[in-house]
Amino acid sequence: MIVMKRVFKKYTRGPLALVNVSLLIEQGEFVYLMGESGSGKSTLLKTLYREEKVTKGYVEVCGQVVAKMKNREVPNLRRNIGIVFQDIKLLTNQTIFENIAYALRVIKCDERLIETRVLAVLREVGLEHKVNEYPGDCSGGEQQRVAIARALINNPSVILADEPTGNLDHETSVAIMRLFYRINQKGTTILMATHDSQLIEQIPYRVIELAKGKIKSDRSQSHVALLSNEKVKEYTTE
Ligand code: ADP
Ligand code: MG
Questions:
Q1: Does residue 130 have a pLDDT over 60?
Q2: 97 to each of 4, 116, 161, how far by Cα in Å?
Q3: 39 alpha carbon to ligand 1 midpoint, in Å?
Q4: Protein residues whose CB sits closer than 6 Å to any atom of ligand 1
Q5: How far is the CA of 43 from the centre of ligand 1 (A)?
Q6: Which pTM does this prediction carry?
Q7: CATH numbers and ranges of domains, the chain
Q8: What residues contact residue 62 under an 8 Å CB cut-off, 6+ apart?
Q9: Per residue in 131-179, pLDDT tens?
Q10: What is the CA(48)–ligand 1 centre distance, in A?
């Protein structure tokens, strides 16, 4: 589902943000990406949805090789990926319905289909009754659930969440985690960046820990050895 092999990322200024990162996440896994602020969590996620290009190395998401992807192929990649951010990024002057429908409008989806899909994802996050309200009428936790509904709209195979509980209190965070749990139970792969160790202890899943751009620990590193070297070599950018 997600493959990174010997990935390096250097921004135009500053030290390396990712240093020789290799990892393998299988379909249906739930994985925490842990590490202090500045350790490279957001950068790693951004290379997966091609917000940032890697400087060197191999990246594959949902069977698509991201490392050498052309810009015009990026929308196709993102159709398989749901993205959830810490700063929820809802449009405050649009209803919850419009906030979620947005991605489908862009691809000129049929109006009836849009309505069915939006209501279905809102039901999934338990917020059907908020459909005609505005983000300002929702609590922080509810807004994050709307953002998760928005991420689910394309029925993605993987969700990348960047500190989705970072601005929420513990109880609300646990409710968001329950929601991710249910989504994961239906088969969606989840990679979630967080530095909330209390949450990780309470709801344990595989943890990949980053420190200064390097993988510090990952109990499944042995998986990486199974990667086909041929394919990796073929696509690796130098
Ligand atoms: P985290 O999400 O774990 O806090 P980031 O991936 O945001 O870490 O940052 C990793 C490192 O890369 C930091 O040193 C940060 O300053 C640097 N960095 C992040 N984004 C940029 C950028 N757009 N330009 C230059 N440096 C960046
Ligand atoms: Mg970050």
A1: yes
A2: 36, 11, 21
A3: 8
A4: 11, 13-14, 17, 35, 37-43
A5: 6
A6: 0.91
A7: 2-80+156-236 (3.40.50.300), 91-155 (no CATH)
A8: 1, 77, 80, 81, 157, 158
A9: 999 999 999 999 999 999 999 999 999 999 999 999 999 999 999 999 9
A10: 15
